[in-house]
Amino acid sequence: MYRETQIIEADNKADGDDLVINVGPQHPATHGVLHLVIRLQGETIQKVEPHLGYIHRSIEKMCESLSYRQFIYVTSRMDYLSAHINNHACAMCVEKALQLEVPPRARVIRVLMDELTRIASHELWWGAMAMDLGAFTPFFYAFRERETINDIMEETCGARLTMNYMVPGGVMYDLHPNFQQRVKNFIQLFNNKIDEYDDLVTGNIIFQNRTKGVGVLTKEDAISFGCTGPVGRASGVSCDIRKLYPYEVYDKVSFDEIIEMGGDSFSRYLVRIKELRQSIRIIEQLIDNIPEGDIQAKTKAVLKLPKGEFYSRAETARGELGVYIVSEGGTTPYRIKFRSPGFSNLSALDHISRGSKIGDLMAIMGTLDLVIPDIDR
Amino acid sequence: MFSLEHITNSIQQWLYSTFSPTMALILECAIVMLLVIGLFATLGLVLVLMERKVAARMQIRLGPNRVGPKGILQTTADTLKLMMKEGLTPNGADKFLFNLAPFIVMIAAMLILAPIAFAKGFQIWDINIGVLYVSAVSSVSVIGILMAGWASNNKYSLLGAMRSGAQIVSYELSAGLSIISIVVLSGSLQISEIVASQQTGWWLFRGHIPAIISFVIFIIAVTAETNRAPFDLAEAESELTAGFHTEYSGMKFALLFLAEYINIFIVCAIGATLFLGGWMPLHIGNWEGFNHTMDYVPSSVWFMGKTFFLIFLIMWFRWTFPRLRIDQLLSLEWKYLLPISMFNLLLITLIAIMGWHF
User: Fold this and answer.
1) What separation in angstroms does the CA of A313 have from each of A197, A256, A271, A356?
2) What is the residue extent of each domain of chain A?
3) Is B236 near chain A, with CB under 8 Å?
4) Most CB within 10 Å of its CB: which of A72, A317, B59, B333?
5) What is the value of pTM for the model shown?
6) Do the Cβ atoms of A35 and A50 come closer than 8 Å?
7) Interfacial B residues in 295-314 facing A (CB < 8 Å)
8) Considering only CB atoms, which chain A residues are within 8 Å of B54?
């Protein structure tokens, strides 16, 4: 820490009368232990420098000593808001290596869970972002609906945050008998609630002024920074893994890839709000058509991957999650690398926030939807 | 009817008949001082509790409901806790200014109470330039805020204080122009005369649309002047953690916090006095029966009712709107509110000169 302080002081001297402030690691707007060193000229941002590593848990290294069944559970702790989708991506990578055929019932259940997770994650983002911009009430509205999803998850998976529900070859348990009915009730309730969100926040003139034209990320920059997910799509980059490289049953359901051309914070906001409706659409198509059958493919008790390198990807609520496994043919991976969406999205922060005000930085960080454990791993 | 005037008058008569005039004056001052401090403590407790309950109702929660019946003792418990906490002074802070700042903010708030008419004949000091006095003293608190921000030796505090300074100085103009429009209509700066001029109806209704415009501008401007959301940039907690009072703790924090709520009460009381007739009951034209019934409601109830209605409005804003950005805040004032209120003042003057108001 001491060395770091010295560096900041040295930078400060070089640039004359800039004001250097540390946002974080303990700060209400960073939603985690992210540390940003901001250089200000008055209220205008000259430079933003993210300092990472406060919540680094060596997940990739830990995975090297865990078996192919075990390492999936650790990944729930990366992007804890998309726990299902993280597990899903890892399970898919193992299945790819073993050339396992996942039963149709498990495929549909996985997609249903993924989309429920996406809704829950976007809900939390919506509330937290509104709170960053100074509106408290949306936070409670968002949590009201998110609770319903958590209850549904709890019933089937036994957990509310780190589900550990996807296993290589399928899912761990069958659906709870109440699942279908509760999801249907939720959809009915939620359709009205999205309109309420639009009334409360989207249409608000202050909110629009705070986000329109703020933190513009051009299409070229989005591609060169590797931004994916809603951040990339708001800049006009078509990067929805569910459309481009369909997995499970995503090629059999109809939904739209939401693309906005603005690239500003408001576009990023709109993409996520519209994605909520698309997720509902996917769930509506699948909830009555869950095929009967097994929920897991037959696998050996101890999984051994063939020698080689395997890569799979999934669309989490924040963007593309890549799982890269190098196997030496043993029961544990030789090396695992996760390509997490949050890390790439964060890298664009400095570029798009230069020249804007401190208040804008909160709007930008809010719409980048950063989850710090996903960035640090 | 149920007027507090009789009580205050009889107390004064008793004092002057029992003691020498100097002694009586000193005793009167002491009584008023105790009343003001008592009012401050009560208002602080009530307003904080009200804010929490209003917020809870808007956010589908219950709010405080454990300490005392329905949680009404919650804020008392919080105050006790704050009193017992250590008042830290950070290293490198300007100790004198740091400790002085909360008191300046608080005293400024206390001083503004003087000319406010709480009920018929219940007024501390009926000064003949009452409105001017209020506008002048209310700008003193910004010095305290700047002092707190500067002396804290904290960059967040400094930014918050600078924002607050820019904001209060700007919005004072619109608030002042709205106040002047009522002064023009009523023809007096004295609070008691402004209230008396609304005997037949409140200025909000009698001054046609321009009066309504200046009322709306007044509410927006005072929301900004008291640093309330959506204009709470001075303590924007997601940007500056807590703005100018980041480093304060214990009773010094409580004073700053209390002053914020007292200021809300004061600006709402002034709004109620100028636009909604102060302690005057609601009278509608020639409805004799209705007007007579309204007279039965004590004047203090009318005043408090109107003030708390405005306070509720300001709380409603806070829990609904997102926060503005600093440049948007200033352009709202200088580009929209100030020109509109200047033009509006011309219209009001025209109405007053031609006698077009009801």
Assistant:
1) 31, 19, 21, 34
2) 2-51, 59-376
3) yes
4) A317
5) 0.84
6) yes
7) none
8) none
Dist CA A156 CA A163 (whole Å): 10
How much is the pLDDT for A324?
A: 92
Q: How many CB atoms lie within 10 A of CB B21?
A: 9
Asked if the structure places residue B337 within a domain, the reply is yes
pLDDT, one tens digit per residue, over B228-262 is 878 887 777 777 777 778 888 888 888 888 888 88
Interface predicted TM-score of the whole assembly (ipTM), two decimals: 0.78
**Which residues does residue A20 pair with via DSSP β-bridges, in sequence order?**
A39
Hey, is A355 helix, strand or coil? coil
Fold of A59-376: Cytochrome-c3 Hydrogenase; chain B (1.10.645)
d(CA B322, nearest CA chain A) in Å: 4
Q: Are strands A170-171 and A308-315 parallel, antiparallel or unpaired?
A: unpaired
Cα separations in angstroms, A285 against A104, A244, A248, A249:
15, 20, 14, 11
Query: Is residue B50 one of the residues assigned to a domain?
Result: no
Q: What are phi and psi of A35, to 5 degrees?
A: -115, 115
Among A93, A63, A92, smallest CA distance to A75 is for A63
Residues contacting B52, CB < 8 A, separation 6+: B63, B64, B74, B75
> What CA–CA distances, in Å, run from B87 to B83, B92, B95, B280?
9, 15, 12, 44
Peptide bond preceding B230 in cis form (omega within 30 of 0): yes
Nearest CA-CA distance, residue A376 and chain B, Å: 22
What is the number of domains present in chain B?
1
CA–CA distance, B163 with A226 (Å, rounded to integer): 37
The residue behind tokens 């709470």 is B232
**What value does the CA radius of gyration of chain A take, rounded to a whole number of Å?**
21
Question: In chain A, what residues touch B236 (CB-CB under 8 Å)?
Answer: 134, 359
Over residues B30-58, the pLDDT tens digits come to: 888 888 888 888 888 888 888 888 889 88
Is B262 an 8 Å CB contact of chain A? no
Give A234's contacts (C-beta < 8 A, 6+ positions apart). A217, A260, A262, A263, A264, A267, A268, A270, A271, A367
- Residue A1 pLDDT level (bands cut at 50, 70, 90): very low
Q: Which residues are CB-neighbours of A196 under 8 A, at least 6 positions away? A: A141
